[in-house]
Every structure is written in C-alpha cells, then in structure tokens.
Hints:
The chain has 325 residues and is mainly beta. The protein contains two helices and 22 strands.
Amino acid sequence: MTGFSRRLRLIPPLAVAFLLSSSATVRGATSMGGSDHVDLELLSERASVRPGEPFEVGLHMKMKKGWHTYWMQPGDAGLPLQVEWTLPAGFSAGPMEWPAPERIPTGELMSYGYAKDVLLTVTITPPARIAGESVTIAGAFDWLECKDVCIADSDSLSVTIPVRPGEARPGRAAPLFAEARARRPRTPMGWRIAATAGARVIELSFRPPRGVAPRGGYFFSAQPLVVSHAAPQGFERDGGGFRLTLVPAENAPSPPRRITGVLVLDGVSRRNGNALAVDVEAAPGNPAPAPAQGKRGGVPVSIVAALLAMVGLALLFLRRRATRA
C-alpha cells in the first residue's frame, strides 16, 4: 500500500496551512507499524481461534511524547481513526469500541482524544466451520496525529491466529484488553440520568447508585454542534444527586432532541480516586435552569472556523483513499 503524509498547522486565528511531505512510503501488512510519532500493533486477545466463538482484536496505538490522536467525536478539530477490515470468508467485524477520551486543549480549541496510548478493540465473529489451520485478520488504518502540527498517516496491519477446536487460551496481550475494558464507558445500571436543554444552557442531572460520590465530572458529547467543547462545564450537588451544566454550541441549529456521549466522573467513591466513565443517552425535557458554578477559562471556538479546519482534514483522507484505490 502506498501512503503519504500531509501536515496541517492551526495558526491563530485558525488559519489552516497544508504542507505536502516530500516522499511517500510503502508499507506491507505486518502486525506492527505506525509512523514517526505513533507506534501501532494489531493484537488478538486470544492465543487461538475456536470456530463459532467470537473474539476480540485491537489496534494498540502508542503516541510519542507530546503527540495525540482522536476519539470517535474529536471535538473542535481533528479526525477519528478510520479502518477497512479484510477478513476470511464467513467472518464479520463489529463496531469499534472507544475507551473514554481525554481533553486536549489547543489555544481556543478543545479536542477529544488520546495522548499516551489506547487500545481500540473490535469483536470478530467467526463462522461455525473454519477451513485451514490459521486465520489472518487484516486492516487498513488511517489516522491523524497532532502536536504543534497535524499529520495524516496510514498503514496496513495484520495478525495471524491459529485455529484450535478446544477452549481458546488468552494470548500475551490479554492484560491490555482487560485494561481497555476498564476504560470503556459503562451502561448505567442503577443510575438515573435526565437532560434539559434551552437557548443558554444544557443540563445533565444524575443520581448514581449508593456509594458513588464523585468530586467532579466532565461530559464528552458524542454529537457535533450540540455543546461548546471549549466552554467550562459547571458541576455541583443537587439535592440527592448531581448536575452538570453545558454551554450550547455556537450556531447549533436548534436545541438537541437527544443528548449522547460519555460522562467521566472524578473520585467515584470516598475510598478511591478512580474515574468512572458512564454512557449517556437522554431526551432533553424543558429548558434548563441557571448554570452551575464551574471554573472559568477557555473561549468558545467559532464553529465556522473549526468546521473549515475539519473540512480540510477530511479532504486529506479522501485524497489518500483515492490514492489507495
């Protein structure tokens, strides 16, 4: 596969300049690869595959110091990882599982992504019968890596796994998959979550199960043009529960009919300081009341400028996919 790198620099006031790198690279399909700034490895959780029994594979991305990649909804600027799977006959791949992201501020922008390492996993379902003694799972990956510049890069990776009729044993990467599951947002069992939305504020109110006492929280919207990513979020106790208030996105077409994303809570209990990520999906009710108190700082980014930056990045991926084809 032939890939190429493009550079993007966001220069205040968000002027976008693209610099084409002087050389293209040719990469084969191996289990390890990446770029100068991001190491990639395609891993299997299992040491073997059993016919008819689903298993997970994952792309392990390790960013060099100062670099980051993006969540499925990158915030004000950026692009998420794209993948095209090549699977054996009868195999199918499920959706990508995204661990809870981090906040990555850059000037007036707030992006969502990963700054150290992340394992992005997919469930592979094999058929009831598998011909051959091994199977190869392959993928063509496109991603955006950023520091003071952003580089669109690509690679093709594969992992070959033996087929065994007996119980599948965990592979060497099984601890990484267990850690990735711990970072995934959880479906709220025993939680009560509600939302309201008005012209000035969007509110998430929630009551966690007994024993969960967060000291703070942040909501990562899975939808664009719903909340202002760069604006501060207010967090406070509200009776027996808590509430988080958000600033609506500039130029949002109308109050959202539903709110989806990930609520990350800090200090989930009195006995430990671990964060907890909770899936949120709520249909907003009546307009929200006044905002809760929150830390000041950050300036809401111009939606038009952010969209221009993202359109430019999307053009890079389209050209690269055309080159690959």
